[in-house]
Amino acid sequence: MELIDGNEIASVIIEELTTLVATFQGHKPCVAFVRVGEDPASVSYVRKKEKTAAKIGIESKLIVFPETISQDSLLKEIDSLNQDSSIHGILVQAPLPEHIDSRKIFNSVSPKKDVDGFNATNLGKLCQEDNDGFVSCTPAGIVELIRRKGIETEGKRVVVLGRSLIVGKPVGMLFLGKGSTGNATVTYCHSRTPDLERHTQEADILIAAIGKPQFVTEDMVRPGATVIDVGINRIPDESKKSGYRLVGDVDFEKVAPKSSLITPVPGGVGPMTVAMLMVNTVKAYEKTIATS
Amino acid sequence: MELIDGNEIASVIIEELTTLVATFQGHKPCVAFVRVGEDPASVSYVRKKEKTAAKIGIESKLIVFPETISQDSLLKEIDSLNQDSSIHGILVQAPLPEHIDSRKIFNSVSPKKDVDGFNATNLGKLCQEDNDGFVSCTPAGIVELIRRKGIETEGKRVVVLGRSLIVGKPVGMLFLGKGSTGNATVTYCHSRTPDLERHTQEADILIAAIGKPQFVTEDMVRPGATVIDVGINRIPDESKKSGYRLVGDVDFEKVAPKSSLITPVPGGVGPMTVAMLMVNTVKAYEKTIATS
Prior knowledge:
The structure is a homodimer of 292-residue chains. The first copy, chain A, is of the alpha/beta class and 292 residues long. Chain A folds into 2 domains: 26-111, Leucine Dehydrogenase, chain A, domain 1 (Rossmann fold), CATH 3.40.50.10860; 137-270, Rossmann fold, CATH 3.40.50. In chain A, 39% of the residues lie in helices and 16% in strands. In chain A, the strands form 3 sheets. In chain A, strands 1-11-8-7-5-6 form a 6-stranded parallel beta sheet. A 3-stranded parallel beta sheet of chain A has the order 3-2-4, sandwiched between helices. A two-stranded antiparallel sheet of chain A has the order 9-10. Chain A is globular, with a radius of gyration of 19 Å. Strand 6 (185-189) of chain A pairs antiparallel with strand 6 of chain B.
């Protein structure tokens, strides 16, 4: 078993970006982080993104709205960011409060600034294999891990556990495409799939994105499989000061010995998501430069 | 074995639309058919669409450009159709000549008039399960067949043979969604899948959209499966005046006895594609009325 070290690979990408951004003359790339409310996990994610941006030399602008902001007001705020030519990328931190239609908000971000890749147009471009669009960060990060570890996908069986718009659906589409990390046979399983393990057991590459702590057990995994764990779940742990610890969707201790390559949680997909956000921001910037 | 009669189901939809369109006051829905060149199959498809529109009471406008039209000129023509408020829907008949980037053309059609559903934004909305968009006609037609025949999809295994942008990818996404014709476990197979038959043999619903005449043979199909044949292939047949006959991607004679439900070619998915184009055109019209 070999660990796929997301921190290490993300660091390499961040260094590459730092070198690239240093060559940019004049204005630097600038990303706006929009946060609604004070959810502790969101606060922490956005802070991590701000720090990474700063490290690379990407400017960022944090905009915080109260939990009570109306959907219309939020749409107007996003529109003014869409219009602001000093902002190259916009990230609206999920989850949003329940009274706001997240899909509507994500679709209101200009496709050209949608560095999160949640906009319908960018999702469609991903399906179209149109590199002009932005691929959402977690799926892009998963594929980048596979690419940089030199894991073959052509003709391989990829099983995606979960069908979310943000991870499951797009990551499967990426492995199905015709690129060097594509040409796989892709199966989507989810909560309504009977005999889940029958499918997961056949996976050469298993993507666990079902949002259930330690859901994937060793009997569900084929010996020698590559296991990518997208889950970030808090479970109670009295031995920790915080009273909890983070675990993935995979029962790591038991599954790891059976797999050939596996991502840990934390330190696997998580840091890659942040790194790919930065890649997208630099891409958004370069596109405005190319067309200005 | 029962035949899924696409002509019959399409007729019912066309009747429903005729009744609905008769209630529209003032301007009727109007769709523009854009054809480039004189490819006989394209001429015939567009003629069929014109006739069906006329039957329903949908106006149509046929615009034909020579095979030699430049991509830029075609883009300009589409833009003027986008601007024309008397046109509610635009269909650019595929295939386009090789010197034209089809994806670029399809993406240039306003998402609001994209009754073919090939635009990135509508493809993304399909993935997002956003009913506000237009679902491309062949996938929509397949799902409508399944719905109207009362075929259960929840927890069922759908195998999609083919990963085209126009059929394979979107139809799988539809069966993966959460609606009444969704919640299936979906596998995509294609030309790079080893042991194709291992996958197809497990399908409760098999969608053959690989573009190879009579590719699916009886050993590839599970007894009692529902088989949807999307292929339209010409094969030589000296007994026909034309010298050819149409066959699907399924070897119908041999597969039919093994299946529980199967679509014929012609008369299966084909007429549904045309019917769903009309459904989309009426929807485009209703959306302009709702917002005017």
